[in-house]
Write a structure and sequence with these properties.
By secondary structure, this protein is of the alpha+beta class. It contains nine helices and 25 strands. Among the domains are: about 45 residues, no CATH class; about 250 residues, Purple Acid Phosphatase, chain A, domain 2 (4-Layer Sandwich), CATH 3.60.21.10. It is globular and about 65 Å long.
Length: about 525
């Protein structure tokens, strides 16, 4: 028995951990070639307001029309509880055709298609409906795929992003108050198959309806899956309350209810150089602003994949996306409450400026970015760290470098070149980079207030609450060319998730050591499961 367990764990280690996605392959880029953003909402509960008010239908209509027209995200995800299953009553009693017809009329009327709109099932969508036939017949994804879970990809110039939309509600059709959230047989095998079918994936993001803490089955297995595969984030709804927390190396984001909550119903997410940024906003809040570079080191208390900025960089980029239905007039930034930074549009909705990191001490620094349209403004504060790094030697004529500008740290830079103090709670590690070119992302297979952290309660988790913002170019305004800046990339300061990060040419002794550690962890997990 022990030998069989050991063999299984070694197979899992070899197939998953050593080859797992490493979310800390995050890059501080001088350009916006690896930047894209998307929007997520949840719990529209169509049918909940039939007895007084139209918040459910009005907010879903807004999210699938004006919000999308303004923000122009890569895609929109709906994380479940599409309908209420109450018929306007107080408790769910089963599925109502009128609710599903109203839901379908809104999403179809606003042009939602399966390559753009990713609607997942929630517990309210399955009450009294074993196998979820009404979800399959009326949701955008159900009609398109005939399945209860699906995946899609986004490709940028330098990275591949995989999104797994998983069904976390049960399929037994049990009536309220039963929920039976969690995994069913074959769910993780399906997820593993989607990963295997996308071998070039650089960043994995998982979406579902329930928080992992609510799972009645497969809780430990799902947490292990997120850890082993290095998931950047798990996005969900269900509770109708907004929160962000880190569990291991994965950011867990709980969005408030589109149909029943009064604030923070819209989640705005961006990947910039594979680094994740996130804020939540009220329905109808404009402008909306999200800083995407540098990564906010204080995201949900302590961003697990942020980077330190080398102190030789005299033109360190700061980048943000900003939106307003009538366009953004200006985006400005202030460093450490003293230094103003001019920002200009470098692409649709993307603004960029530069600051001199060489004059900063090795302590935490703050940048406050503000987007304005007339008297309407939204601001976000981010925190970042610097590190002392010897400026790399640049060989004249080397492809991808221009000695008239600052150059990023070499990918093979000596770690001893980093200063003993970095201003971060952790020691500085290698910072590296390489130049690159490309285009902003495209979808395949489917087509706030600022985050100020509070100490988390329970489970040793770090929590973050927010109230949010983002923006658009004014009519007729053309994107200005990007001013000259650093070339290449700066890699993240930390090593990622559960992925071993062992190179293909690692010595056999190292591979055996990693296998031994993975085996011990796997056996430990099996021992603690019921």
């Amino acid at each position: 028995m022990i030998l069989r367990l050991a063999a299984s764990c070694l197979a899992l280690l070899w197939s998953s951990n050593l080859l797992a996605i490493t979310p800390d392959e995050v890059q501080y880029r001088s350009d916006a070639e690896d930047l894209f953003w998307f929007v997520a909402v949840t719990d529209s509960h169509i049918g909940a307001s039939l007895m007084g008010g139209q918040q459910d239908t009005e907010n879903l209509n807004f999210a699938t029309s004006e919000l999308l027209d303004t923000v122009q995200p890569q895609f929109l995800a709906h994380l479940g509880d599409l309908v209420d299953a109450t018929g306007g009553g107080l408790v769910p009693v089963g599925q109502f055709d009128e609710e599903w017809n109203n839901y379908k009329a809104i999403v179809d009327g606003n042009g939602m298609t399966a390559d753009f709109y990713h609607d997942l099932p929630g517990n309210h969508d399955q009450y009294g409906d074993p196998g979820l036939p009404r979800y399959l017949a009326n949701s955008v994804q159900g009609r398109a795929t005939g399945k209860l879970q699906h995946s899609w990809t986004v490709k940028t110039a330098h990275s591949d992003f995989l999104f797994l939309g998983m069904r976390t509600c049960n399929t037994d059709g049990a009536f309220w108050p039963a929920d039976h959230a969690g995994l069913e047989s074959g769910d993780l095998e399906w997820a593993a198959g989607e990963l295997a079918a996308a071998p070039d994936t650089d960043v994995l993001t998982v979406l579902g309806h329930h928080p992992v803490s609510n799972f009645e089955s497969g809780k430990n297995e799902f947490r292990d899956f997120l850890e082993q595969e290095g998931a950047s984030a798990y996005l969900f709804g269900h509770t109708h309350d907004y929160s962000m927390k880190w569990q291991d190396q994965t950011l867990h984001v709980n969005l408030a209810s589109l149909g029943k909550s009064k604030q923070l119903q819209v989640g705005l997410f961006a990947f910039d150089g594979r680094g994740l940024s996130a804020r939540a906003f009220d329905i109808g809040q404009w402008p909306m602003l999200l800083v995407t570079a540098p990564l906010h080191a204080g995201l949900a208390g302590n961003h697990k994949h942020d980077y330190k900025i080398p102190d030789y960089m005299t033109q360190a980029p700061i980048r943000a996306i900003a939106f307003h239905p009538d366009g953004i007039d200006s985006v400005t930034a202030v460093l450490d409450s003293t230094t103003e930074i001019a920002m200009v549009p470098v692409a649709d909705h993307v603004w960029q400026g530069y600051f001199d990191a060489s004059v900063l001490d090795l302590y935490p620094h703050e940048i406050v970015v503000t987007a304005a349209h007339g008297d309407q403004k939204d601001s976000q504060m981010i925190e970042f760290y610097t590190a002392h790094v010897e400026k790399p030697e640049v060989v004249e004529g080397e492809v991808g470098y221009d000695c008239d500008y600052d150059c990023d740290a070499d990918a093979d830079a000596d770690p001893d070149a980093l200063g003993e103090e970095s201003g971060s709670p952790e020691e500085a590690e290698d910072l590296g980079g390489e130049p690159g070119t490309g285009e902003i992302g495209t979808v395949e297979g489917g087509t706030g207030s600022d985050s100020m952290s509070d100490a988390g309660a329970g489970d040793g988790l770090e929590w973050d609450s927010a109230v949010g913002g983002e923006g658009l170019l004014a009519d007729g305004e053309e994107a200005a060319p990007s001013p000259p800046g650093v070339t290449g990339i700066i890699k993240a300061k930390k090593s990622g998730g559960c992925a071993a990060g062992v190179p293909a040419t690692a010595p056999p002794v190292l591979l055996l050591f990693v296998a031994f550690v993975g085996l011990a962890r796997c056996l430990g997990r099996l021992a603690r499961r019921p």
